[in-house]
């Protein structure tokens, strides 16, 4: 295995750890409520705390990397993440649990930017499409599999194991990172902690607004839905968590009629985007916008892919374009990156 492949594996493991900890705890909320005597509103802070930790740590990643080195920061983030996971599992009150989730999120917030920087610099622009496809695959599978895994752990062991379960993988990633990553040189020269000039980009401001709103909506819906499924409907934690698997399979089935990127790409009107380097950002923003509107998502799916009404079932349409089934979106993403890499002039 080449060095850049090892770095990519470490980055994907860190990305997977970060994602599963955003979703795996959702099925355990009813059990947490009974054990910790917590309210529904209070339990929302179990995930809010993790996102707060992420938000606080991500802006510091570049500054820490310049002063400590990428390898040290990545190893430190894994240690903090593992400590937060273990302490969250042993928490005896909701306040303690939320506090340690913030610590865990702070560790997880450094995994993605530092790992991505390490991996991306080892791949040439025209080679990054394959790595992007792997990232997209992990991004699709982790949210789908983690609720099912969390439900199984809650039903067979305890809700505390939704936090303990990530510790072995984080320690394995820590060991691999310690053995595989090469120590880098610390950058010299003063630089500002935060580059506030980036806020001049309107697309970045819009993305920040989306990031601010979407997690809150998702967490609120998840808390209510998990209580409703397990207390009113009577589903077990494993059955409630496995519902995501059905939606993921439905999303892939819905897009099975549009799996050829050669037929899919010409239907995307790239002229809407004045700058070519913002095409991917625009598509991603549109995906996020339409997720909360059933009518808009159905129309968008039909117009872009040409899928008829019979192929879009009521339970799958909200995730059909948002999940962007693996067979359709990854070739599109690869095509976009390849075209961008070829057409972009080389730096002088």
Automatic annotation (TrEMBL):
Q: Which residues form the Major facilitator superfamily (MFS) profile domain?
A: 7-348
How does the record say this protein sits in the membrane?
A: Multi-pass membrane protein
Source superkingdom: Bacteria
- GO CC terms for this protein? membrane
Subcellular compartments: Membrane
The molecule here is called High-copy suppressor of rspA
Q: Which UniProt keywords apply?
A: Cell membrane, Membrane, Transmembrane, Transmembrane helix, Transport
Principal localization reads membrane
A GO term for molecular function = transmembrane transporter activity
Q: Does the keyword Transferase apply?
A: no
Q: Which regions span the lipid bilayer?
A: 45-64, 73-92, 98-119, 131-153, 159-181, 202-221, 227-247
Q: Does the keyword Lipoprotein apply?
A: no
């Amino acid at each position: 295995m080449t060095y850049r492949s090892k770095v990519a594996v470490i980055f994907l493991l860190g990305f997977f750890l970060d994602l599963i900890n955003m979703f795996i705890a959702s099925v355990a909320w009813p059990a947490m409520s009974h054990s910790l005597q917590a309210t529904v509103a209070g339990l929302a802070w179990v995930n809010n705390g993790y996102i707060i930790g992420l938000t606080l740590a991500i802006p510091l990643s570049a500054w820490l990397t310049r002063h400590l080195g990428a390898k040290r920061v990545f190893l430190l983030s894994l240690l903090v993440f593992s400590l937060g996971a273990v302490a969250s599992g042993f928490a005896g009150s909701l306040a303690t649990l939320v506090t340690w989730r913030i610590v865990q999120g702070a560790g997880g917030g450094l995994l993605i930017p530092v790992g991505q920087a390490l991996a991306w610099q080892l791949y040439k622009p025209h080679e990054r499409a394959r790595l992007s496809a792997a990232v997209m695959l992990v991004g699709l599978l982790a949210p789908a599999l983690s609720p099912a895994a969390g439900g199984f752990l809650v039903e067979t062991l305890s809700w505390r194991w939704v936090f303990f379960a990530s510790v072995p993988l984080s320690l394995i990633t820590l060991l691999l990172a310690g053995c595989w990553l090469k120590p880098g040189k610390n950058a010299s020269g003063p630089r500002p902690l935060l580059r506030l000039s980036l806020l001049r980009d309107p697309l970045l401001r819009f993305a920040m607004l989306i990031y601010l709103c979407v997690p809150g909506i998702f967490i609120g819906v998840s808390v209510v839905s998990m209580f409703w499924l397990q207390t009113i409907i009577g589903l077990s934690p494993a059955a409630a968590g496995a519902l995501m698997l059905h939606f993921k399979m439905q999303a892939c089935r819905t897009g099975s009629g549009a799996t050829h990127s050669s037929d899919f790409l010409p239907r995307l009107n790239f002229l809407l985007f004045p700058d070519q380097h913002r095409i991917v950002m625009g598509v991603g923003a549109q995906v996020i916008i339409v997720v909360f509107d059933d009518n808009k998502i159905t129309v968008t799916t039909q117009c872009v892919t040409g899928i008829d009404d019979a192929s879009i079932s009521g339970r799958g349409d909200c995730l059909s374009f948002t999940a962007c089934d693996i067979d359709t979106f990854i070739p599109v993403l690869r095509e976009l990156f390849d075209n961008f890499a070829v057409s972009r002039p080389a730096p002088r």
